[in-house]
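Re: beginner question about structure tokens

> Can someone show what the tokenized structure looks like for a real chain? I only ever see the sequence side.

Sure, here's an example I had lying around. Input first:
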Amino acid sequence: MMARSLKQMTALAFAAGVAVLVNAAPAKAALNVTYNTSVKFTYTGGLVNAPIVLVNGPLTSTVQFGASILTYTGTTGSADLPTPAGFGELKLSGGTGTFHDLAFELTITQIAPPATPPSAKFTSLTLHGTVTASQNQNGELKLIFNSPLIKTLLVSSPYAGSVTYEVFQPAGNGRIPASTSGSGLSINGQISGVVPEPGAVALALTGLPLIGLVTWRRTRKSVI
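And the corresponding structure tokens:
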């Protein structure tokens, strides 16, 4: 039997080495992310008698209808994934006021590592209702998000990966309590995501030529 050429043996060895890496279980590393949250309030209705004041900021946003003020306070967090996460809080203060056609958009911006796109946006159904000091069941303000509530950002790094943000529908049917209760409505969720272990990838790539060489030598002996 004629011995195979060196070129053929090298190609065969390299292919065998690649097959070993592909079939191996991919090592994963925990990913640490830093993010912040913000909210944009938008009035979508027509003219109303009550005065309307909208202030949208990088971390804190407020909207006022009549004597009632709704305040969103954002957060900045950093954690290893996967992890439960808080995405801010809504509170009502002041006196009685009637809210009209108020849109709510939550933005979660990933600061590190860089991601594409850099942020995930979640919107709510229109908030409306009459707010009283006691927030009784006859007049209440609710926050209910539109779906989908799961969005993924791609990590910009030498190793392909992704980060997934999930926002949970608020507890208590989305009811926003008055500030007299001492607490607001927390917006919570989950962040998950992994990237290939850099050390494992580097080790695998370093060992690829060796795997190919050993396979080539064994194949060469069998055909001589």
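Each token stands for a local structural state, so reading them left to right follows the chain. The first strand starts at residue 28 and ends at 30.
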